[in-house]
Design a protein that fits this description.
Number of helices: 8
Mean pLDDT: 93
Low-confidence stretches: none
Strand content: 5-15%
Number of strands: 4
Radius of gyration: 16 Å
Distance between the termini: 7 Å
Strand order of the largest sheet: 2-1-3-4
Shape: globular
Order of helices and strands: EHEHHHHHHEEH
Length: about 170
């Protein structure tokens, strides 16, 4: 990548109570390791109604992101998705504390809804571009739905990324 060329953007539409998104995050980590600064991974929210704590998890993620720990927080929540179903908000706050975040701010953010507009905007945009489940990836104008089957998606993302990076050279 040249100094002036922006990175390729990979949007990952996910929800933090989705066990399939745990697998997606492992793929995202591999992509980040392969491309480094040439790939800008952006987590976008698409909480599904069937998961009662998904909206709160998205809001807590936004607070963790504001504190500089978005992706580590997402990974920690996804690692405990089964526990999230049982414990909800208290677990989200606990995970923040375990990561060294200001857990009181996460708790306050869940109460005051300060990040709800960001989450709602992501959901609206996701619906507008055809996201219906998670994980879904958007890269180079292509929407790749991984909500039913993620096999081969990382390879497709790599091919698209390689093509977009080569076009800039």
């Amino acid at each position: 990548m040249t100094d002036s060329a922006p990175p390729v953007v990979l949007e990952v539409w996910c929800e933090l109570q989705c066990s399939d998104c745990r697998t997606a995050l492992a793929d995202v980590a591999a992509l980040r390791a392969r491309y480094g600064a040439d790939l800008d991974v952006q987590l976008r929210h698409f909480p599904l109604e069937k998961h009662r704590h998904a909206l709160a998890a998205a809001e807590a993620y936004e607070e963790a992101f504001a504190q500089g720990m978005g992706l580590p927080y997402a990974a920690a929540v996804l690692d405990r998705v089964e526990e999230l179903e049982k414990r909800g908000g208290p677990l989200l706050v606990e995970i923040g504390a375990e990561l060294g975040l200001d857990a009181e701010e996460i708790d306050t953010a869940l109460v005051d809804g300060r990040h709800l507009l960001v989450v709602d905007a992501d959901v609206a945009e996701g619906k507008a571009i055809g996201v219906s489940g998670t994980p879904t990836y958007v890269i180079g104008g292509e929407v790749l739905d991984g909500s039913d089957d993620q096999r081969g998606l990382r390879e497709r993302i790599e091919k698209i990324t390689d093509r977009l990076l080569a076009a800039r050279a």
